[in-house]
Amino acid sequence: MNGKLKVLSAGVLFFIGGQFVQAQQKKDEAKEKEIEEVVVVGYGTQKKSDVTSSVATVKGDAIANLNTPTFEAQLAGRSSGVQVVNNSGEIGRAPTVRIRGINSISSGTSPLYVVDGVPIFSGDTGGGNTAANALGDINPADIETMTVLKDGAATAIYGSRAANGVILITTKKGKSGRFSVTYNNQFSIANVVKKFDLLETPDFITISNEKAAAVNSIWARGADFNTDWQDAVLRTGTQTDHFLSMTGGLGNGNYYASFGYTNQEGVIKPNGMERISVRMNADQKVTNWLKLSSSLSYSETQYKGLNNGYNSISGAMFSAVRQLPNTPIYDPSTPTGYNIFTSGTTSMVGQWDNYIPITSSLTNIAYIVNNNKYQSDLTRFIGSIAADVKITDWASYKLQISKDRSVTTGFLYWNRVHGDGFSRGGYIDNNYLNLDRWNIQNIVDLKKSFQDHNFNLVLVNEFQKQKSNYFFGQGQGLSSDYFGEVGLISGSYTTQYSGGSNTENGLISYAARLSYNYDNKYFIQGTIRRDGLSALPTANKWGNFPGLSLGWTVSNENFLKGNKVLSELKLRASYGKVGNTDIGNYPYLGLYGPFKYADYTGIAYSQAGNDQLKWETNVKKNIGADFGFANNRLTFSADYFINQNDGLILAVPVPPSLGVPGNSINKNIGSMENKGFEFSLGADLVKNENFTWNVNGNLTLMDNKVLALVNGDIYPSQNGQTAYLIREGESLRSLYGFKYWGVNMANGNPVYYKADGSLVQGNLNNSTYYVFDPSNPSVLGAQSTLGNADRFILGNTLPTYFGALNTSMKYKNFDFGVMARFSGGNKIFNVTRRELLNQDFYNNGTEILGRWQSASNPGDGWTPRLYGTKGSFVNLEGVANSRFVEKGDFVKVDNITLGYSFDKSVIEKVSLSKFRVYAVLQNAIMFTKYTGIDPEMESTGMDYNSVPRQMTFSMGINATF
Q1: Residues forming beta bridges with residue 497, ordered by sequence position
Q2: 516/154 Cα distance (integer angstroms)
Q3: Residues forming beta bridges with residue 620, ordered by sequence position
């Protein structure tokens, strides 16, 4: 695609908003009205009773008062098969969302998000200076429903973009009738759930000097201070939310308008978010055959971020947990007022009375978080206009044109007085990121019934084009700190840098879906989509993606009609083939890029091309059953699924003599499988005029297995850790490292298993391994080794089960609700725990108090003796070690809600139709044996120095006029 839009052709992707729309039907015999649920399933709607695929819907009422900056975080625990992991308390970090597992090894694994028919940008749009979740530009209060498409039949209508599932968001629409105004206000207080358990000054001095004694030295002295450096970076955060919406109808039209304001402080300084959002949705019936509609939203969001690098000396948590507790934060005798020592080219936190300075010349982290700046300012427009034309009673046509534009201006400033900017004389960065996407959709919808035969044919054409351009300017050697407040100003810095990028891609699609049912008993639906993607070579630009589903509503058969026990029984089966287009913009091309040699600029070979490259494919199979008992007072659903991912893109090694960049070429080689069971249960336990009580829950059992690779195992590294293994027959990214036996009680040496099951001990005195005999621990055996061949698989990093249990009660005007989530079956490499057992002149975690001290005082039998500066040998830094691998199982009471709604007889006197006050406690209680702060604070199976997650208490009001 060359970017020149010559057609009105193009396609449609009518938002599958996934909502339960209410439609009234007359019941001939009872002559009363029933509400029948309707589900939006992509480019149209279906009655819920007609759906034969795996679809889950979350209503807006269930998430209305939760305090989360982005809507996808609110999906946690709401649906089987959907795992949402918030692994950091830092505002702006996008949670990880997985629908039926991970479906790629090297390409994107996030779902496709569609808002009111618009496929939107997702991921981090912060421009590099601070985390900025693109989904945070959408106000959660505007959302009516969220629908998750999980199986092949449901996702096939989205073809090449649906391998990771699809999440459809429907925003609120206008309602006919009287004009209505709703105002919601919420105030929240947040604190970290737990801080790291660190040594206080007396124990710190003891431990530090015990480390030093091993190298014939002494490090620590002075007990005048007992500083909690975590308090220097952590705080009590507050959040204020205001939301005003208006809805009503004028003539043959309906409208919905809203204004939202959110100001949220993070629990770590200076992290925060401020957002203003505006939305306008309108529908107008122009004639009997034409209806126009629009959905427009605009937001401005500012994120304040920070450096929280895992091994950065100015990383907030990395530094805070290592600072020396017997030193103060502030020193009035210095020009800055902080405890800072500066001499020549060195600027570090002051050592105070200690004999030596802190290891690695760590900075005063309190000064850093209060003076360095990380900021991203985002403006976002998401809008669509649509025309619905009624051709006949059974035929209609819809044209929708939409645009998603996100503009981010980033700003970074490192203070020149102390920290990262000291050696540079101050450092500043401004950047600009523009993401622009057009989408055009054409839909023809044909519905016809002949006696008991019901047909629905949907034809779709879609065109999408997107561009991205990015540029930055940087400078160092600032003439004044003033320019750290205002941005890049010509002449204000000595050394300047600049750079940028520009990419684009396009998609054109044709799709059809035919649905048929006979007498509302037997259902069949077939889908076919053909996509053309500019990111692939000419021979492979086009792909076909079919889907098929079957259903049998057994409860509509004569032998079950009227059954008082089994009120509903439906059997379902589906198949679908979808793709993954999140593979980059030019992955198949041989590319040249800029290259600098000394002071000369030039062009060099940067990527080896593969003109046979294809998109990754995913074949989804599903069988399921839905049950209803006692007039559906009790409902139960069960599904079994298999998702097989083929043609996964992997880097295939080539000989270095060929001169190929990276010595590899991307090819469609890999294969991986996810399979499992999903269960959902709902029960109305009590239902009368004064008291209602219902319970619902879900459980997912999941298994992941790598089926095919190239040239054997893959050993990816992350943040300086070689801890993973990708191997055929094993779960993706299984932890792989050394297996720990314990401590030699005779001398305090760490003991490990070799591959053959024998034991070796690491002699701390000379950093050499010797054979270990448990029956004769005081004797060093023959010299030995502990090498790569002695590593073991230490556990899978992906949960094998997860789910939730939710209950809500209402007694007269009071309402009460609780949701508990659970997850487990996975292992976590607790890198933070290992780092808190460091052997340098840093602070430590309290676990180090269990170290071996002597044969008569062997400690906990798990923590070796201390040996200053030998942390890499004592703790095997840089590789996985079963000593620090723990179970990730947990149960969390996530949300507790209590509300009271005032009687209408009281509030009508002030022209209110609804007035409710409520309180919510989020992330309330956790049950786990995991020794870290939170087992969800893991990134692909490893727990680093993340910002602790927060417990939030909120109070608010909902008022409707």
Answers
A1: 474
A2: 15
A3: 576, 643
Q: 486: which 2 tokens? A: 């205002």
- C-alpha torsion sign, points 151, 157, 159, 161: negative
Angle made by CA atoms 113, 97, 118, in degrees to the nearest 5: 5
Angle at 486 between CA 485 and CA 489, to 5 degrees: 130
Confidence of residue 318 (pLDDT cuts 50, 70, 90): very high
Give the number of residues written for the chain. Answer: 961
How does strand 166-171 pair with strand 180-192? Answer: unpaired
**Short-list 58, 52, 54, CA closest to 20:** 58
User: Is 823 exposed, middle or buried (CB count within 10 Å of its CB: 0-12, 13-18, 19+)?
Assistant: buried
How sure is the predictor about 623, in pLDDT bands with cuts at 50, 70 and 90? very high
pTM: 0.91
| Single-letter amino acid code for the residue at 942 | M
Residue 680, pLDDT score: 96
Residue 36 confidence (pLDDT): 66
Mean pLDDT of 230-251: 93
**What is the DSSP code (8-state) at residue 363?**
-
Phi, psi at 864, each rounded to 5°: -65, 175
Check if the beta carbon of residue 615 is closer than 8 Å to that of residue 160.
yes
Mean of the per-residue pLDDT values for the chain? 90
Enumerate the β-bridge partners of residue 649.
668
DSSP letter for each residue of 179-200: -EEEEEEEEEEEEES----B--
Percent of the chain exceeding pLDDT 90 equals: 70
Q: Which two tokens stand for residue 824?
A: 């487990």
What are 395's strand-pairing partners? 392, 446
* pLDDT in the model for residue 312: 76
Residue with tokens 């007396």: 202
Residue 267's CB is within 10 A of a number of other CB atoms, namely: 23
Mapping DSSP to helix (H, G, I), strand (E, B) and coil, where does residue 674 land? strand
Task: Over range 122-127, report the average pLDDT.
Answer: 81
Q: What is the largest CA-CA distance in the chain?
A: 95
Count Cβ atoms within 10 A of the Cβ of residue 584 and give its class: 0-12 exposed, 13-18 middle, 19 or more buried. middle
Give the DSSP H or E segment for 232.
helix 230-233
Q: Which residues are bridge partners to 673 per DSSP?
A: 644, 705
Sheet holding 143-149: strands in order across?
55-59, 143-149, 166-171, 112-115, 118-119
| Integer Cα distance of 811 and 392 in angstroms | 49
Buried b (16+ CB within 10 A) or exposed e, 867-889: bbbbbebbbbbebbbbbbbbebb
- 637 three-class SS: strand
Per-residue pLDDT tens digits for 480-531 = 877 777 777 887 788 888 888 889 999 999 999 999 999 999 999 999 999 9
How far is 705 from 728, CA to CA, in rounded Å? 7
pLDDT bin (cut points 50, 70, 90) of residue 705 is: very high
Residue 285 forms beta bridges with which residues?
Answer: 291
Per-residue pLDDT at 18 exceeds 50: no
C-beta of residue 464 within 8 angstroms of C-beta of residue 507: yes
Sequence-ordered alpha helix ranges (H) in 321-430: 365-371
d(CA 846, CA 840) in angstroms, rounded, equals 15
Compute CA 559 distance to the chain's CA centroid, rounded to the nearest angstrom: 47
Distance CA 138, CA 813 (A): 32
Q: Which strand (E) or helix (H) includes residue 152?
A: helix 152-155
For residues 87 and 188, the model is more confident at 188
Quote helix, strand, coil % in the chain, to nearest 5: 10, 50, 40
Q: Concatenated DSSP letters for 522-545?
A: EEEEEEEEEEEETTS-GGGSEEEE
- Could you give phi then psi for residue 513, rounded to 5 degrees? -135, 125
DSSP alpha helix (H) spans, 793-948: 831-835, 871-874, 904-907
How far apart are the C-alpha atoms of 719 and 377, rounded to whole Å?
Answer: 28
CB 528 within 8 A of CB 511: yes
